[in-house]
Input
Amino acid sequence: MQYAYSEWDEDLARQMMEMIGLIGLFHQLLLMTNGDVDQAFRLLKELQKRGLVDSNLNLDDFRQKLEEENLIRQNPEGGYNLTRKGERQIRSESLEQIFSSLRKSGLGDHGVPIAGLGKELLPETRPYEFGDPPEEIDFQGTFRHAMKRGLDDLRIKPEDFQVFETEMKTSCATVLLLDISHSMILYGEDRITPAKRVALALCELIMTRYPKDDLHVVAFGDDAREIKIGRLPYLSVGPYHTNTKAALELAQRILLRKKQTNKQIFMITDGKPSAIYEGKELYKNPFGLDPKIVNQTLREADACRRHDITITTFMVARDSTLVDFVERLSRTNNGRAYLTSPGTLGEYLLVDYMRNRKKTVR
Output
């Protein structure tokens, strides 16, 4: 392959960095406006008027560039919508943003050479055993082992063969539960936007690097419903209570249909359970921890445990009653819980996902 080198263009480099920064800001505004492209552009212009965006940037040219690259398209009403390519770009940028923070914290990128079900060779070796596949033989280690007998006898004997240890990549079935109750935007604190960004990043991670894995997204408020991955940017908070029981029930129904051995639930929430259905009637109590609601929710957590489904809860609030409930839920399910904040939510979630995908085998 041949490369053509030219003089470094400082202006071009600056324009490219400005474009990258502008796209990142545009994506953030899209998530905050639930995928409303026109509103996101209005906010961009408002930020520029306030001096928070470079006044030299031509936002009309930026919009035209997005349209030319098929990231947005004009709708019959004269406004703009995201395209599927635009939705994919948000997922990709979300994943890169979270992995950038992981690298800064010293955890590094967790990319692997083989996606989905398979084996990865480790640097450690062991003696060959009958039945080991030939592609796992460490030929250099085998020769070194034979040379220990000296130069007079360089014949390779069966006991000289060494094989690499391997790491089995097991496929996972995961349900991500997203709390869309009113408290996710209560008191002026936006918790739903970073939660959506994490969900988008997790989707991109699985779809591009672990294609044999299975991911489903469930939004829960008064009730729980599965949503398509492509609809994540458009997800909005409603005037809902928190029906954690319904979310766990739906997650179980989804996972019990799956063939994967590893099944897990990730739940992002900022509120204690405050509602359950009794028949067709919604029983709700937003004050304290209602024993009726709590007991039925913990019963679902125990059912998950009996089906070998692990629940990992990410709390994006420090309410003492929420912490108390999540501790009880984790004990019941033998699961895990993290107290985090919207700013660090993505780091904890993605690290935990990838740590629980691998198992060393002999």
The CA atoms of residues 222 and 243 lie 5 Å apart. The chain has three domains: 10-82, 120-167, 172-361.
